[in-house]
Amino acid sequence: MTTMTEAxxxxxxxxxxxxxxxxxxxxxxxxxxxxxxxxxxxxxxVETAKAAVELPIPYDGVxxxxxxxxxxxxxxxxxxxxxxxSGGAAPEPAPAAPAEPEPAPAEEAEPQGxxxxxxxxxxxxxxxxxxxxxxxxVAVAAAPAGLNGHGPAAPAAAPVKERxxxxxxxxxxxxxxxxxxxxxxxxxPDGIITREDVHAAVAPAEPVVEAPVPAPAAVPAPAxxxxxxxxxxxxxxxxxxxxxxxxxxxxxxxxTAPHVTEFVTVDVTRTMKLVExxxxxxxxxxxxVNPLLLIAKALLVAIKRNPEVNASWDEAAQEIVLKxxxxxxxxxxxxxxxxxxxxxxxxxxxxxxxxxxxxELVSTAxxxxxxxxxxQGGTVxxxxxxxxxxxxxxxxxxxxxxxxLAVGAIKLQPWVHKGKVKPRQVTTLALSFDHRxxxxxxxxxxxADVAAILEQPKRLISWA
Length: 464
Prior knowledge:
Elements: H1 2-8, E1 9-13, E2 23-29, E3 36-37, E4 42-47, E5 52-56, E6 61-66, E7 73-75, E8 79-84, H2 104-112, H3 124-128, H4 150-153, H5 158-162, H6 168-177, H7 195-202, H8 214-218, H9 222-227, H10 241-254, E9 259-267, H11 269-279, H12 291-305, E10 311-314, E11 319-322, E12 328-330, E13 332-334, E14 337-339, E15 342-343, H13 351-366, E16 380-384, E17 403-407, E18 411-417, E19 420-434, H14 440-455, H15 459-462
Parallel strand pairs: 12-16, 16-17
Antiparallel strand pairs: 1-8, 2-4, 2-7, 3-6, 4-5, 6-8, 9-19, 10-11, 12-15, 13-14, 17-19, 18-19
């Protein structure tokens, strides 16, 4: 009877809802202990470093236990909810969950047939290969101590030694200093070893006793800061989720890709007239038509005329990867922070299709429902700072992309038109690009083409 009860309790583990993510915060539970759940029912909402995602349960049953409270950050692969799939109602069998490791293979086998249910939901097997924390997953159900099982599991260090995460320059530094990367404790995002980690591994290498000393010293350090902290006049906000991911991405981009930014001020009066005409066109009925639509199309045409700008830098292979597709990113400010979802294969879309895609992208972002897949694989990005009344800026590249176009506010300004000073609709464009990939001539051509199209939008037809 006990065996039957133990076998009937199944644990649902935090899946990898985004490529390579290692943790997620539980934002909200939609079920409580004792509730009946069905296959595919959403049980909670979690926030990763990329987006907020709803998680469906992969089987029928009765909720026996919610392992973590709302607001808790949980590692991928950790059991978050226990469900009695036998349909019983007695709460006593809940402690039997520790015996769950036996049916664990069945649990992993089931999601394989459910890949379409959720982005990243059915790929736990492949994603866990890249993480050394797969070993301790079995011990999670036994006790909370399993969460700290990285120490005891270290002797088995096969996954760690197999592929420590570090960029080629860091690997070279480690080789020059004689440091074994498998022995270095990473501090970078997603477990990446940084230069500081390598140097830190060298410094305490000789006086072994000093290795634990920094840890205790770091504990009392915050105390003086807290003592001088004015709670009435200052607020401290934990850096996590989208904000944390954005900070890490911007630092990585700013100090990896050599940025160059060029500017051009352009008369967009004809473009603004075309926007008003398109709003009355039957082809755009029910669609949102605004200057961003024509700016996006202008950038796509400019990329078509200068395809070399649509590329990425492969540091490991020392190769430039030319993209024969354009996944057009649109920077969007949301309550959770800045995200950059992208329109897949934007180069193939007609103007009405591009308008529909932009509308869906913006509405989904505002609702906080942008999926991790929608934010992956971008090639170039547009950031519309003009909506805030800003003239222009020097945007930082989205990691892995070659260029980003900033669009300033469109304002009536005095402009020389046909030999006379007249009030015209004018804006300033700024193009930042990765100087490893894009030289000054190529970057200037792309920016000049975008400006020329916005000045004379008929070029959308003649240059397309």
